[in-house]
């Protein structure tokens, strides 16, 4: 490995920019450090009612106050603690000593501490009755953070406070940099919320978590943070995937300790039918992978998952079906909203004067219903606030109507930069080096009247705000957040001429994945194909390359998102399209090709040879494999020839039902004991219900079904026993190793202190957001 790894010495005092995080975040950080380092419960008190205590230790279960923590933060990174800095606290110290709440008094500060100063402060505290005084400065805090991965899980924003290599060793730093190249600059502003802690708990408890939320709710940010934590675990490989198909390329169920992060698991802007079908089979395999210490984090927009969930049915992951491992990212407390807004404004690129002008308005902004972290991040970025008036009304509108303001901002960029965003959009959010001179790019350039060379030269101007480059030096340009694509969709909806031009110029595959026909059920955030463009679109998508992957997307589009008129035009343009091949599904009801031919048959567009082939497939699946998911759908039944349903019913009664016991034994013999045992027999229960619905059950059939159910129960019991025996033979420590962030579910409780004799005016968390007084501290 010589020559491939940069070796350097790292001392324990490498700096972290603690002075940049604000007084409230510093107070919370101190509480987390104390709880983790000293292993004792910590309570954090509300500002203005702390009675001189930012936090306290508890002496034990049910015990009283034993130690007081006082935090002093300075926004000046060069400032050293002075003896006089505690003068304002001495009256509170006297009161706490009298109440027996300061036998131990810990002063924690973001400032550097010299030994003579610490000695003098401890002496002054002892003189006022403190038995055990402690002064802990920046150096002690940095050393504690660097020494404990679990502490960094509790306060993940420290990843962004300094050079990542100052926290991680060289191996882990390289791995994390590769994963977090676009996220590292944002980590310093990250706020670990209750959703963050619930996600950690779900990963520890179930090995998987699904993060749901609206656009800009912070799903991807939590995914990035938890992936970074996982990368610190020795032997853990972190993989960031873009869909279920990549999952098959990146793992083996027998691999151990891999962390899979799949963003927008069921589609980025609209639900992708092919993603749902891929997950239907992938979830079965994931059950086995979880038992080998693999972990899975999925994110999805809430409305997309709600549409996908019934299609998945019981083929979903068990912990997702019952909600045990599903986390709503959008539910934020008032304190969390305020801290998130503070961090994004304080650490954003706005000028100090702008921050000072909006400071009086920020408390109201943090209280907006539907507050979104992603919108708060934009508020701190001057690229998104052009023309925004720094008034309460202007800021509230910015937060309440984020898409409207984003549309306005994109509209003000100018043709060349708008063209850059449109190029990324029409390449499905991933503009690679090969995409700069294809037909799609040329169509966009012609539409907007710009030169592609100019767009390529200037796209970097949007980096960090509107686009990110996945790998430096000629990599792939993507959107930092899918809401950029949402805004472009909104822009296109209001400009019919642009939609028409794009449908003529963009890649046909992009039409299949990102559009829906006018008059069909609306797909949120999907472009609309006007009926007037059906002839153009039909010619374009009928000519897509005959490959299994593109055929699958084509079949799903024509079966579910194309209008009757568009489907008829596509079939007329390419009559052989219905004979193409693609990947098939185990359930006939989910099969893209069968769904398409059933619809084409209803519209009288289906050649007889194709209908006969489909009918034969359905009959074979039913009789030979007892796969009866299609029976409740009249569209599938119509594919059978006249009298076909009666003939099929007889075949099911005389051949399929007597043979079902053998199929159950075969399924039990080939089942993976690490999967949910019941899932191996779902098709049989579904089939029994379908037979009851079509009325082919007599007394003999009922008896066969009862025998089959008894056999399934025995098989499930046997699979459970095999799993237990397999785990009993596993060497201790081989399976569920504790991850570096296993303790991150511990969090200080919020408690109210005994009211002090007189309350101080409440200090707003935003009081130092503009950093106008670098020596201010508590």
TrEMBL record:
Coiled-coil positions: none
Highest taxon in the source lineage: Bacteria
Ranges annotated as biased composition (Basic and acidic residues): 768-778
Single GO MF descriptor: endonuclease activity
Ranges of biased composition (kind: Low complexity): 742-752
Domain Restriction endonuclease type IV Mrr: 19-112
Stretches the record annotates as Disordered: 726-778
Pfam families the UniProt entry points to: Mrr_cat, nSTAND3
Residues in Novel STAND NTPase domain copies: 190-346
InterPro entries: nSTAND3, Restrct_endonuc_IV_Mrr
GO annotation terms (biological process): DNA restriction-modification system
Protein name: Restriction endonuclease type IV Mrr domain-containing protein
